[in-house]
From TrEMBL:
Tetramer of two alpha and two beta chains. The keyword Amino-acid biosynthesis applies. Its EC number is 4.2.1.20. SUPFAM superfamilies: Tryptophan synthase beta subunit-like PLP-dependent enzymes (SSF53686). Residues 76-415 form the Tryptophan synthase beta chain-like PALP domain. Its cofactor is pyridoxal 5'-phosphate. This is Tryptophan synthase beta chain. The modification N6-(pyridoxal phosphate)lysine is found at K113. Belongs to the TrpB family. PROSITE patterns: TRP_SYNTHASE_BETA. InterPro entries: Trp_synth_b-like (IPR006316), Trp_synth_b_CS (IPR006653), Trp_synth_beta/beta-like (IPR023026), TrpB-like_PALP (IPR001926), TrpB-like_PALP_sf (IPR036052). NCBIfam families: PRK12391.1 (NF009057), trpB_rel (TIGR01415). The keyword Lyase applies. It comes from Caldichromatium japonicum.
Amino acid sequence: MTETVKYLLDEAHLPRFWYNINADLPEPLAPVLNPATKQPVTAEELEVIFPRGVIEQEISTEREIEVPEPVREVWRQWRPSPLYRARRLEQALQTPAKIFYKYEGVSPTGSHKANSAVAQAFYNKIEGVRRITTETGAGQWGSSLAFAGAVFGIEILVYMVKVSYQQKPYRRALMESFGAHCIASPSNTTASGRAILAEHPDSTGSLGIAISEAVELAAQNPDTKYALGSVLNHVLLHQTVIGLEAMKQLEMANAYPDLVIGCTGGGSNFAGLAFPFLGTQLRGGPKVRCIAVEPSACPSLTRGRFAYDFGDTAHLTPLCKMYTLGSGFVPPGFHAGGLRYHGMAPQVSHLTALGLIEARAYNQLECFAAGLQFARVEGIIPAPEATHAVRAAIHEAERCRETGEAKTILFNLSGHGHFDMQAYMDYLAGKLNDLDYAEEEVAMALAGLPAVA
């Protein structure tokens, strides 16, 4: 009998509710603060840039939040996404471990980002919003929101980190094909962008800078709102569709993970897979090791400080308590652009501080090597961001080979690398190097953290 490789759910099993980990936290999250008053920010203050629907989700402590039917209708184009057993990878590694991966590259834009993009576009649409501004690093979020904007008839303006704008022209083309307008950040279109360019004319940009530009425009225009692709509670909530589906699929495989792994830049795809399993553990269910994997060149979880900080460079956002390298830190231009963010999601940061999540960092070259090793046996070329999760999964499978333990490993393959082939070409040609962040720059950025009693 042929052994099963893919586990598929039909549309009837598409989750009807998101899972909100705030309901099960052993200690509540630190409140988001108004930077001027240092008091908890109010819903009315957030309404300047966000629709009320996502604000309610941001502050909710309800365990289950219903997914609107119009969101599920769009999701049905690619969800439920497949769960694969990486049998050929297991054989190649000669490991007793069972390796499963949830594949999010089947969305129209090739990554998990579409899950939240569709939801956020819907909540903006029902409140009559005409335009959404946003930022994007590698372009997965920007292209996903561009797709969602096209579906719901909303204008999308994307500030793309300049180094990625130059590295990934096809991501930019995808956004524009969906009708979005894409601008390299920092730009001359905003005061925050002009201020950066005046001081650093050759700036390669950062997600923090791009967020500043997008937030600035949204705050100045009453018909415009801002959407974020990661970090905030409501974004991580939307992504839990990934883990909820994976739970049902693992039941089909008669398996339960010992380890759950995801790459982390802002935390959305990792949380989307891991939080339903962590929630089960917090309610007395089986324990899992959850490993958040980040780039060594932007190591917020492994080298950052757990403190209140701004989410953007121009300090236009509220203060969140998170692991941060400082809002003024500009990471080097490594290819995993979606992981070039100075801070980590407050929920992921909080759970890490509580010891419920492990953090690990890898260099660029070893991640590309792992991505190609995976591609040559499994047939899917991972996005540069996703190679970090692949590297960790291989690392753990090799450890099982050494110890003889037959652990079950689950990781999120958060997107494909079809728009990142120049990065793979550069790697194969020996043109890539491991990039280090400047210790002195991080020290300066951390020295500028806001004072919060």
